[in-house]
Design a protein that fits this description.
The complex is a heterodimer. Helices cover about 40% and strands about 25% of the residues of chain A. By secondary structure, chain A is of the alpha/beta class. Chain A is globular. The termini of chain A are far apart. By secondary structure, chain B is an all-alpha fold. Chain B folds into 2 domains: about 45 residues, no CATH class; about 300 residues, ABC transporter involved in vitamin B12 uptake, BtuC. Chain B contains 16 helices and 4 strands. In chain B, the strands form 2 sheets. In chain B, strands 1-2 form a two-stranded antiparallel ribbon. In chain B, β1 and β2 form a beta hairpin. In chain B, α3 crosses α13 and α4 packs across α11. The chains are: A alpha/beta, B mainly alpha. Chains A and B meet through α2 and α3 of A and α9 and α10 of B.
Amino acid sequence: MSAAAQLELRGVTKRFGGVAAVDGVNFEIAKGDIVGIIGPNGAGKTTLLNCISGVYHLDGGDIRWEGASIAGMAPHRIASLGIGRTFQIVKPFGSMTARENVAIGALFGSAHMRRGMKGAFALADEVLELVGLKAKADQPVSALTIPDRKRLEVARAVATRPQLLLLDEVMAGLNNVEIDEALEMVRSVHASGVTVLLIEHVMRVIVGVCRRAIVLDSGRVLAEGEPEVVLRDERVIEAYLGERYAKRLKSS
Amino acid sequence: MIATAASNRRWKRIFLIAGAILAAYALLAPLTSLDAAQSANIPLLADKFWLRIATSIAMFVVMATAWNIIGGITGYAAFGNVAFFGIGAYTTGMLVAKAKWPFLLALPLAPVVAAAFAILVGLPLLRLRGHYFAVASLGVGVAVGELVQNIDYRGQPVFGGASGLFLPIFRIANRDLFFFYLMSAAAVLSIAVTWWVLRSRFGYGLIAIRENEEAASVLGVNTTAYKVASFGLAAALTGLAGGIFSQWNVFVNQDNVFPIEYNVQMILMALLGGTGTVFGPAAGAVLLYLLIQFLGGTLPISFDIPFVSTDARPIVAQIILGLLLIVVVIFVPRGVIDFFGGRTRLSLSYLRRSLRETSL
């Protein structure tokens, strides 16, 4: 355990009935890192994010944030420590404008950086510009397209001024141009000093921005390392494409 | 006509001025001597009967506006808010009737006790969502009334039992006028509280909870504390109305301070006027209260409903209210307040659009 670890997972386990969706996961993330989590459907990626953000209670193991345990904390307390997240299925506040949505993040979020109404709306405007939604700030959420709603989801999380940002498949369902824009957005958020942990199915994203990738399969860490190396790992190919395909790939 | 920003502002100003004149008349008319006004035949408020109606309206304005805080802004459909009204009424009633406290000293305790009770039951209850919360809160509303009437200690009813509580008459010149102003002050207070809530960090947190509770919590909203505070705030205002009612009415029992139909009426008022808004529930309270009295035949301006005997009138009134609820929910989902201020106008296309939006 290095002292520099900002987030540290030790034997994190979450069961639903008899199924262990996350089963003894260990890893750590250093401050300022940008890490991708990949894995086939049902591997437990989103469940893991829900464990970190406090949406789920752990059935075993411990999660440490800057050395102190955050296991069992309510989501709002974890958010106030500086851990922000997005949802894979976006959850905007439907009756509000885009600007108000982001202002909620600015009004709450990290405890030590909270500000008044004016400051919150000013920050909301800044973040909207960062994600490219400035022109649509005063539109109701219902008027936004799907890519814009994904941007809004990220903007709201960024407005909480997190030290660690958990992104759950923000690129899913976007076309190539939109992915490039979203990549740029993630890069600029990371460049502002935020540690990023992102779940992604689009390998281009993982290879493009991540320094490190963690592969989950059936709730366990299958492989960990540099994205290019991990993606060539035999076990990873097997998990994604099946044993037979992996063998064929090897023999060819 | 396309509503421009300028015409919006103009309409808003017109409605504000008209509202201010109406409110000023309602508040000042009773000040003129009652006898003189009656002999001069000045209608409406300068008359004991209408003063009673106006005080009741103010009471429902408080209840509907308070319900709006938990039901409209926070999105938790509380069906048992009458419990807070009753608790407020019994708190003040017990202190005045049994402990011989002066009324004005006993009144501030009504909202305090009601809010304390709401926080206590809110902690477990507000973990439930949707229909589950609605039904559970209805249960609490009914249970509290029954408990208050039936709790005995050494064979003696603690809270007056079935015969209720009689309060000594509050000695003040122009009593009716005093209670009208007191209740109106409570109404203004509840509207002012709503106005503040909708502009505060607290209110934004509550709306976030209404729109998506999970998203609100990961953004840092302490959802449990916010929901309980919202419930407590609604209870405090409702309890205040109850406390004023107990001394105004002089007599308090289960039937008049825990009526189940108040639960439905305050929700209907908020829906009719427009939930989540500052003035909607108040507008709904005025409209619906007058309609209920009109249909019930208690107003002097009345008419015979064709083919309906006088005995069947209350039942027919209930049916009409039920139909009204359906029509409002389907066709005017944002309430009648939506038509004020010039943003939207009541038209066939509005109704058609609403129907499309509300039908699945």
